[in-house]
Amino acid sequence: GVDPAVVPWMPAAPLPPGARLFESPSEAVEAYLGEGVGKMRLSRLRDELLGSLRRRRVRLEQRLERFLEDQERAREADLFERWGHLLQANPQAAGPYDSSAKLRDLFEPDAPEIEIPLRPGHTLAASAASLFNRARRLRRTAPAARLAEMGCRAELELVEQWSRDILRIADDARAAPQDALADLRLAAARIRDAGVSAEVPAAGKSGGRGRGRRQERPRFREFRSSDGLRILAGRTDRENDQLTTRAARRGDLWLHVHDAPGAHVVVKLAGAECPRATLVEAAQIAAFYSPNRYSAKATVAYTRSENVKKPPGARPGLVTLRSFQTLVVACDASVPAKLSGLRPNGAADAT
After folding, report:
1. Is the pTM above the cut of 0.85?
2. Distance CA 327, CA 320 (A)
3. Which of 79-93, 184-198, 254-268, 310-324 comes out lowest in average pLDDT?
4. How many CA atoms lie within 13 A of 341 on its CB side?
5. In the chain, N or C terminus with fewer CB closer than 10 Å?
């Protein structure tokens, strides 16, 4: 017989007898060279996916550690409140320029002497009020930090499940490498659909290094609202710039927590009206990726993207708004996880 050959084909020309049409040159080369290329591509895709999930796991573990630290600090609320009461009960215990006050802790049975740090230049009443405010903030932090911890643990569990699925598919590749490669691509698509598209490369593409990586597109956080609309959020100041000045189009909705640093958030609308539920969800995402994430409520500014301008020479992330409205939303740490495709029990969203 005649050795098979790979030749280009134009859609207008008739397909030669006995020829097979492939969707891409890589698929044709894979079929021409046999299973070796398929196994190589499967191995490469497996390594890329596992590497992306490993990096995701490291970041999640770092976030989990911060949430646990927040909860540990929240346990100090009772101590700060006790100090405030002791300062109120002893208004002459220290002068306005003292850095601390030594008092008897009347809340303990043996009333030991303790040293309470003060705010230099402030009265004891002002220092007591500051301690009370700090205790209230810490008490508000605890429930939100616990909720964020639950979401983080659920996502960690999901990442572990994805990693096990990828390894299982790769182990089953000996009998049918082509089927395993298709299954691996489906797994990669499910991972991207579940909100980890910023961490997982597209199927069949190499992670690469050097010049190719510097030319990659920015990797925004991506969510899907309850109305089915795409919501994008920047991760860094430079990504905020790219999201606002390049990814956002005229008619999209732009959001940012009011009078505080945080992520730029864009709802892809293409000029359509934004449903109320999507507006609230996007505002909650903007509040979560800001210092206000542990507050009870946050004020978020929103406007059409054409009203957002980047001043010449401004630092990354800084923009000006021609006009805007504000919305007060409850800070809910479960919203980003839910809209990224995760459920509280760690199962992937079916949609």
Report:
1. no
2. 18
3. 184-198
4. 20
5. N
At residue 163, the 3 state secondary structure works out as helix
CB 127 within 8 Å of CB 119: yes
Tell me the two tokens of residue 221. Answer: 């956080």
Distances (CA, A) of 217 to 6, 47, 157, 250, 283: 32, 21, 28, 20, 25
Per the CB < 8 A criterion, the answer to whether 319 and 335 are in contact is: no
- Give me the phi and psi of 100, to 5 degrees please: -160, 165
Rounded distance, CA 262 to CA 300, Å? 10
Helix (H, G, I), strand (E, B) or coil at 301: strand
Nearest to 162 by CA among 49, 86, 299, 39: 49
- Owner of token pair 């191995």: 43
How far is Cα 335 from Cα 324, in angstroms, rounded to an integer? 24
User: Directed axis angle between helix 177-191 and helix 35-74, to 10°?
Assistant: 30
- In the chain the first and final C-alpha atoms are separated, in Å, by 49
Helix or strand or coil: residue 149?
A: helix
CB within 8 Å of 170: residues ≥ 6 apart: 42, 43, 46, 180, 184
Q: What is the DSSP letter of 246?
A: I
What one-letter code names the amino acid at 23?
E
Unique residue bearing structure tokens 């508000």: 140
d(CA 234, CA 230): 13
- Residue 108 clears pLDDT 90, i.e. is over it: no
Do 253 and 305 form a contact (C-beta atoms < 8 A)?
yes
- CA–CA gap between residue 257 and residue 252 (Å, rounded): 17
Query: Is the model's pLDDT at 206 over the cut of 90?
Result: no
